[in-house]
Amino acid sequence: MDNEAVEAVSAMFQRFAHGGVVIDYQSEPGAEVAWNEPVRVVESAPVLVRGFVPATRDGRRRTKLLEEALWHLRQIWPIPDLVTRTVEEDDWAHAWKDHFFVHRIGRDFVICPTWREYEASLTDRIIILDPGMAFGTGLHPTTRLCLGALEDAVKPGARVADVGTGSGILAIGAARLDASRVDAIDIDEVAVDAARSNFALNNLSAVASVRRGVASDLNPGAYDVVVANIIARVILDAAEVLTALPRVGGTLICSGILAERIDEVATALEARGLAAIQIAAEGDWRAIVGRVGPM
What we know:
Blueprint: H1 6-16, E1 18-24, E2 48-52, H2 57-74, H3 89-95, E3 103-105, E4 109-113, E5 125-129, H4 141-153, E6 159-163, H5 169-176, E7 181-186, H6 189-201, E8 208-212, E9 223-229, H7 232-237, H8 239-244, E10 246-258, H9 262-271, E11 274-282, E12 285-292
Parallel strand pairs: 4-5, 6-7, 6-9, 7-8, 9-10
Antiparallel strand pairs: 1-2, 3-4, 10-12, 11-12
Helix pairs in contact: 1-2, 4-5
């Protein structure tokens, strides 16, 4: 399917499938994958999203609900029809790991799944991740835009909030940039459990914490950097809350915004005090970076 539809389709699979979602990106043709070399993804290549549903009565119900959800999504994006086939559950539990490799993002981040090895350089900031638990593997443009923005915004000792943390990848990135405290939040209990597990994998439980909730559950004016990788509609609905979370002079990073909605979102955030706005772009996706209040 088209790259821009991946996050939305993955959300549907996460809701109705069982045991995780596989997002199969294509690496550069002809390139052999070595254990110590980051994979380069072909941005223009189709992406395959897969999930497992048990062959039970409930599984058939879930499959029908997934088909209905994808039908509605197809009214927005040109998504192919759902294809099903029978596999053994044990095969599914392990086969998806073959499709996720070490990959590099931004200047120094290296995303490494738990079952791969990577020989880090002195400047690498390693994020150990189990991507089968929740969203946020680092391969999607919105995640890459946020990680790049965090590299510029987070200074040692900063306090950071991650709204809609998913797998916790952005919170871990902020901690790897020497933030003193990272408060992560998500409305999905599966994501909360996944992020907490990934914090532990990275030995960051003392720095990063996560709980179930929404942006308004965080303390306004308490953060040097706030990152929200969600969707345009949610950013618009929560614009007043999001712009209130950073301290005066603090940074707000918002992503998950398609190009056609960037002006609308930027205008809404600017009206609520976001200044010095910059727009980062990758493909059809945009991220907004700005400062709250006086410079």
